[in-house]
């Protein structure tokens, strides 16, 4: 199936470039947005709150996830409440552990019970999915981001794990599974196939959305033309 209109999965855009994000906001296939401190650092963002608030001024009506960055749970809680106050469409990303491997499960439960919309991030095991799903409960809409691409980077097929993760979340109708860190456009269709609710896709992969379902004879011809054009541009001779 290569028709974007028939997809049940929601596509979120993952990035930290203001212009790119605002451009993607015009794209009807983009149902929400995520970012993280690594992407923001790569984009040279220095003023975290200023950047986030500017985005939220332009995008008040689609889910937008921003991440806490403290390594201490008390401070993470303070940051989470502050981030949550920036808009009704905000989801607060909480890493599944801190850097000392201490689980965020208690903080997740506390914030979810208090009505904070969360996106628990950087999960890679089913044990983490079970623990976080139980902590989130069904009080408030929430996301669980499993880094399927990073799992694939280790030589493991993420599909069975992601499929099981969908089942683990299924008793909680306010929880949605995010297929995070996709490695190629085809992962949108992999995630769709296993019933994953959301996939968050980087801007470079999203550029390929326009060729979904493209005729392969045409695509082959475009490729041949590309080689020819570049050879001419380079002025090659033999
Ligand atoms: O949403 C997760 C993503 O930003 C991390 O991706 O490519 O660093 O594994 P990656």
Report on the structure:
Helix content is 45%, strand content 18%. It is of the alpha/beta class. The protein has a single domain, classed as TIM Barrel (Alpha-Beta Barrel), CATH 3.20.20.70. It has an eight-stranded parallel beta barrel, surrounded by six helices. Helix 6 (126-136) links the parallel strand 5 and strand 6. Helix 5 (105-113) runs parallel beside helix 6 and helix 6 (126-136) packs parallel to helix 8 (158-169). Bound molecules: SN-glycerol-3-phosphate. SN-glycerol-3-phosphate binds at residues 14, 34, 36, 39, 147, 149-150, 180-181, 200. SN-glycerol-3-phosphate (G3P) is lined by residues 14, 34, 36, 39, 147, 149-150, 180-181, 200.
**Sheet with most strands:** 8 strands, parallel, barrel
Oligomer designation:
single chain
Write the CATH architecture name.
Alpha-Beta Barrel
Question: How many separate structural domains?
Answer: 1
Q: Report the portion of residues in β strands.
A: 15-25%
Termini separation = 44 Å
Spans with pLDDT under 50 lasting ≥5 residues? none
Overall shape: it is globular
Q: What molecules are bound to this protein?
A: SN-glycerol-3-phosphate
Structural class: alpha/beta
Could you spell the SSE succession in H and E letters? EHEHHEHEHEHEHHEHEHH
Global mean pLDDT: 97
Helicity level: 40-55%
């Amino acid at each position: 199936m290569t028709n974007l209109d028939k997809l049940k999965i929601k596509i979120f855009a993952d990035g930290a470039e203001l212009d790119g994000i605002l451009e993607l906001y015009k794209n009807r296939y983009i149902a929400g947005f995520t970012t993280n401190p690594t992407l923001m650092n790569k984009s040279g963002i220095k003023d975290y709150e200023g950047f986030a608030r500017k985005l939220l001024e332009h995008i008040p009506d689609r889910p937008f996830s921003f991440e806490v960055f403290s390594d201490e749970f008390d401070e993470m809680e303070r940051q989470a409440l502050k981030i949550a106050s920036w808009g009704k469409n905000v989801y607060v990303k909480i890493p599944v552990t801190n850097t000392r491997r201490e689980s965020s499960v208690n903080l997740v439960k506390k914030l979810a019970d208090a009505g904070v919309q969360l996106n628990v991030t950087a999960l890679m095991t089913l044990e983490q999915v079970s623990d976080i799903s139980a902590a989130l409960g069904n009080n408030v809409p929430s996301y669980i981001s499993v880094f399927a691409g990073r799992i694939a980077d280790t030589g493991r097929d993420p599909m069975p794990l992601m499929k099981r993760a969908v089942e683990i979340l299924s008793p909680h109708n306010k929880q949605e599974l995010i297929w995070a860190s996709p490695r190629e456009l085809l992962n949108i269709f992999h995630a769709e196939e296993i019933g994953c609710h959301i996939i968050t896709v980087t801007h470079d992969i999203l550029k390929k959305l326009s060729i979904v379902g493209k005729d392969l004879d045409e695509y082959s011809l475009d490729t041949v033309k590309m080689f020819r054009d570049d050879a001419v541009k380079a002025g090659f001779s033999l």
